[in-house]
Amino acid sequence: MANVAKCSMHMDCFANRDGRCGCLKDNDFGGRDCPFYKSSRDMSREEIEASCRAYTESHGGNGS
Ligand code: SF4
Q1: Full-prediction pTM beyond 0.85?
Q2: CB of 15 closer than 6 A to ligand 1?
């Protein structure tokens, strides 16, 4: 089963699914707020998901 990041900070985020991030495998930003947080009205879902994918891939694809 793939890793999923828990997220309870932004339940209204486009990627939040029952308290889990459906986009990032790692959402530890060193105590800073998630830079990918957007309500589904802020940007197109495709744009945000592309950003999340790029972030995940740049971190080894597994959040390490
Ligand atoms: S993109 Fe960020 S704010 Fe949105 S659900 Fe994932 S971790 Fe939470």
Answers
A1: no
A2: yes
